[in-house]
Structure formats: structure tokens, C-alpha cells
């Protein structure tokens, strides 16, 4: 089945994703959204180079650290919007709360620029430096409730289905707000479906997105597992098409 992956990253040994594109080609993955991170070798400029080398296949998502001054963050997203980027990537595990009132001018800019927002959600492996502050507490879907209510023009994507312990926050926001979505990346994004957690059955599949966090060579097995799991849970072929392709095409503004 044709697919679009809403959540991949650059690979250290594959800086312009040439090898990754070969996996995409082999498995009918037509396009992918590439999220920059804080590490320079896979950061904003590296993503810009990779996506500009592969227009129509790869799209860019600019990493923003909201611990920096708000106006510096706004300048950064304007710069990358001008390069054609479609999304911002956040990592609130570092200790800021996206609901905080001080970020309102930032969210207004995200909306005015027509960007969407994908945030890491949930648990995170310990950093190599154990003293670095990392917490799951601020990286949950409810920490996006205020900007999501105020800014219906921003589409919010909760990565890893919003985390294992907090997946019910995801279910709540996906059911109540039109501009909230979740991807099903490995880790908790797979776990909640594997465990058939309560509340997943009734979800409107217009809000559930195929995203893998760079599964690469395993796209084939992954597709088989998801198809089987979702059909077992009573989902239709139409739901599968929404999940693997149509929702992501709509969010990226691609003619579907
Ligand atoms: Zn990721």
C-alpha cells in the first residue's frame, strides 16, 4: 500500500538520506517529513540540505528550543518557512511547558506561517550526561491544549501516540479537537496498540498517522504488523488508507 511517513530523522551515516530513500522506494513510501533535532549533524541546516536535494520526496521540520528567547524562536521558524519547511519539531522533555502564556506570540507566528507542530511526547531514555534535565512531565499532549484550542490553524501531532502513560490525553484531544493528531512511532506508539489499550477502538482514524521514527529497512514488516493489528481491531480498508497515506498527504498539503 502506498504510504507517507510523517516522522523520520536524518541518519548520521546517511546525511542526505540517499540510502533511506532506497528503502522508501522499495516499500512504496512516497514521501516523508524529516524532523531536525538539537544535534548539529542532524539539525536544521543538515535537514535543509537533505530536503532541498529531494524536493517532492522529503519535507523539512525545524527544531525549536523554546528555552531560548521567544522572538529568537520566531525568527528561526520564519527563516525555515522561507526555505519551504512545513513543520516545527519540539522536545518539551527539556523542561518547558508549551501551554505557558509567554509562548503565545510564538504560537501566533506558527499559525500565521502555516506551519504544523510535531512534538516528542512521553518517556525518553536517559541522556549520556545524567545531570541534564529530562522529564516526561512536560512532554504530554495536555501541555498543548491551550495553543491547540486557541490556534485551530495549527495542526498538532503527538509523536509516539503521546506516550504510554499519557495516551488517554491523546485520545481525549483527538476526539475533541479537529487540529490534534497522533503518530504511531515505535516505542509507546506501538505499545498502546499492541496492548489493545482501552479507548483506541472508538478513535476517528482521520486523526491517526503513519510515522515510524526512521524504520528504514523494516518498512515491510512494519506495514504487515500494522495492517494485521488494525484489521484485527475491526478497522476497515478505508481506515488503513487514511492511516498509511491520506491523512499525511492532507497535512503536508500534497494533492492526494
Ligand atoms: Zn523522532
Identify the strand order in the major beta sheet: 1-2-3-4-5-6-7-8
What is the CATH superfamily? Answer: Metal-dependent hydrolases
Beta-strand percentage range: 5-15%
- Global Rg: 17 Å
Largest sheet: 8 strands, parallel
Under the CATH scheme, which class? Answer: Alpha Beta
Overall pLDDT, averaged?
A: 95
Low-confidence stretches: none
How would you describe the shape? globular
Task: Assign the CATH topology.
Answer: TIM Barrel
- H-E string: EHEHEHEHEHEHEHEHH
Oligomeric form of this entry? single chain
Features:
single chain; 256 residues; alpha/beta; TIM Barrel; eight-stranded parallel β-sheet; 9 helices; 37% helix; 14% strand; globular; binds zinc ion
Mind explaining what this structure looks like?
This protein has 256 residues and is α/β, with parallel strands linked by helices. It has helices at 18-26, 44-53, 70-82, 104-112, 145-150, 167-176, 188-194, 219-232, 237-252, and strands at residues 3-8, 29-35, 58-63, 87-90, 116-119, 156-158, 180-183, 208-209. Strand 4, helix 4 and strand 5 form a beta-alpha-beta unit. The protein has one domain (3-252): TIM Barrel (Alpha-Beta Barrel).
List the helices and strands and how they pair.
Layout: E1 3-8, H1 18-26, E2 29-35, H2 44-53, E3 58-63, H3 70-82, E4 87-90, H4 104-112, E5 116-119, H5 145-150, E6 156-158, H6 167-176, E7 180-183, H7 188-194, E8 208-209, H8 219-232, H9 237-252
Parallel strand pairs: 1-2, 2-3, 3-4, 4-5, 5-6, 6-7, 7-8
Helix pairs in contact: 3-4
In short:
By secondary structure, this protein is an alpha/beta fold.
Amino acid at each position: 500500500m502506498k504510504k507517507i511517513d510523517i516522522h523520520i530523522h536524518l541518519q548520521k551515516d546517511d546525511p542526505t538520506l540517499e540510502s533511506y530513500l532506497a528503502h522508501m522506494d522499495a516499500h512504496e513510501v512516497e514521501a516523508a517529513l524529516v524532523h531536525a533535532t538539537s544535534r548539529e549533524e542532524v539539525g536544521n541546516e543538515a535537514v535543509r540540505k537533505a530536503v532541498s536535494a529531494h524536493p517532492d520526496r522529503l519535507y523539512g521540520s525545524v527544531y525549536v528550543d523554546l528555552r531560548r528567547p521567544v522572538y529568537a524562536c520566531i525568527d528561526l521558524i520564519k527563516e525555515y518557512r522561507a526555505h519551504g519547511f512545513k513543520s516545527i519539531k519540539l522536545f518539551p522533555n527539556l523542561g518547558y511547558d508549551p501551554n505557558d502564556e509567554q509562548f503565545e506570540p510564538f504560537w501566533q507566528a506558527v499559525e500565521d506561517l502555516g506551519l504544523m507542530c510535531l512534538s516528542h511526547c512521553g518517556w525518553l531514555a536517559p541522556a549520556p550526561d545524567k545531570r541534564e534535565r529530562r522529564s516526561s512531565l512536560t512532554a504530554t499532549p495536555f501541555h498543548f491544549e491551550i495553543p491547540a484550542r486557541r490556534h485551530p490553524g495549527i495542526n498538532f501531532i503527538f509523536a509516539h501516540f503521546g506516550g504510554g502513560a499519557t495516551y488517554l490525553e491523546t485520545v481525549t484531544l483527538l476526539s475533541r479537537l479537529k487540529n490534534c493528531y497522533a503518530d504511531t512511532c515505535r516505542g509507546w506508539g506501538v505499545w498502546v496498540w499492541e496492548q489493545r489499550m482501552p479507548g483506541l477502538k472508538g478513535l476517528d482514524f482521520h486523526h491517526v498517522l503513519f510515522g515510524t521514527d526512521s524504520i528504514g529497512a523494516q518498512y515491510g514488516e512494519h506495514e504487515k504488523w500494522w495492517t494485521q493489528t488494525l484489521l484485527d481491531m475491526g478497522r476497515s480498508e478505508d481506515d488503513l488508507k487514511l492511516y498509511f497515506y491520506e491523512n499525511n498527504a492532507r497535512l503536508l498539503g500534497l494533492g492526494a
